[in-house]
Fold each of these.
Amino acid sequence: MKELISSITKDYLYRLIKDGKRLDGRGLLEHRKLDIETGWIGTAEGSARVHLGDTDVIVGVKMSTGEPFPDTPDRGVMITSAELIPMASPTYEAGPPREDATELARVVDRGIREGKVIDMTKLCIKEGEEVWLAFLDMHILDFDGNLFDACGIAAMAALLDSTVPAETFGFGEDYPLPIDHVVIPTTFYKIKEQIMLDARLEEEMISDARLTVGTNEKGEIVSMQKGLSGVFDYQDTLFCIEKSKEIGDSIRALMKK
């Protein structure tokens, strides 16, 4: 994406960031406006749409039954995918999943899986034979930077909105998807020596490094993902971790509303 931004724009952004300023007037560690809405897809077991500034994503959860993995015979299965459609950004092209779509799906999946968000043992129907399969599908409607946070938040909201369709499959009454933890990702970008939160597209294009930290309601770190070729040193990483706990708490409070 770097080739889509002119040298003049780069220089202007560098000057702004050096002075602790940004194009949209935010502080370096300030999120864009976040809107979370659930129940967007009537045919899904759960869904959520998130606007993070002008980044717009929708996540749906569909469930069916199937065989468990051989190494986890008493646990349900979650499969996460992301679709970057051409209408969302001029940098996206039609065709097979891109490398960045695969990375996005893996980062969101890791936060949910390693954070033990879902009690997978409660999605077992008959050990070794049949379990619930949860398909988490992320669709990018408009891309203006920071898909990791937008999709991670939307995925968490969609899971909280989800119901296991037991009645449809002949297994008794429907029940809420068993959620044990609420994990929120927070993504930081480093440009030169400055660290910023929630980068817009132009800021992403000139970023040297990216760090996504997932935390739960206890303030525990459940996942981390470093991206791009630049470096977050030890102090940078500690700073991002502490900030992510604070931001995670504020977003969880918003979800409860």
Amino acid sequence: MKNRPLVAILVATFNGEAYLKEQLDSLLIQSYKNIKIYISDDNSCDTTLEIVKLCQIKYPDKIFYSFNINNLGFIKNFEKLLSVCEEEYIALSDQDDIWHPDKLQKQMRAMHKLEELHENLPLLVHSDLEVVDESLKKISSSYFRLRAYKLKAQKDLGHIVGPSGIMGNTILMNQKLKKCVLPFPKELDVHDYWIGLQCELFGRRKTLFEPLVRYRIHQTNNSNSQTKLYEKKSFLNILSRDRKLPNLETNRKLFLQELILQVNNGEDLKVLNAYNRYLNFQGSRLALYFDLLKYSLVKRDLTFRVKLFFKILYTNRYQESTKE
């Protein structure tokens, strides 16, 4: 790859002393060398900042850091990082994973191919992940397979607005997508969901089905833990009336309606409106269920969809919603 433009790597840290050094090492040995690592520490009370300072002394031309006097929270900290970086290409990194040495090179190659086809659009490249435990012992060779994500290579708005599957720690985006996603909605609870959704609506995505990140699962993960990944999902539990439906307890419905007002594409509006009805549990249960299937708003997994059918039938959510 002759043209190697500068890539900003954004790392939002908070009490990350256990694994941060390993992750920074994996960023610094990338085969794609033209990088600038921006670290924003969210008022850590452990040795995180000391680890960052030592790395910055060793790599003063690669690492730049700031410290939040007040804790902003994970989402706002990433928003801050996005706001300050001016590079054309931006990669997001968690503080506790390990990147494959060729991750950035492979993603930049895919990004350049996307640009040849869609030069003036917001663009995003993401990948699968290998799932490991605290000691880097392999749990699964594919996060997509483990979570039953079956994302299509072409535009797949239903999958993105529902299950998503775009993990922030694999995202590489261009500056045009950054401008689309900022500012984050006030109610946002998951930043990678918002970034992926904006790209699917207004830009183009490239999914690399090769695992390019060793995704470390531990009990303090922001998005996943071993408890969540291996939560018992017996059929009898699915029939229990207190089982939660997927994503109904997220903040998605708080900002989705505003997003709908910005969309002009008729087919996209059908997908978004169907999902909005589900999030607000409006209409008959059967109509909601069949809309979820019609627009691929739930995982393309037969077992999951059968269980979901009974969840919708037996949930108390409908009665609760009618009382509000």
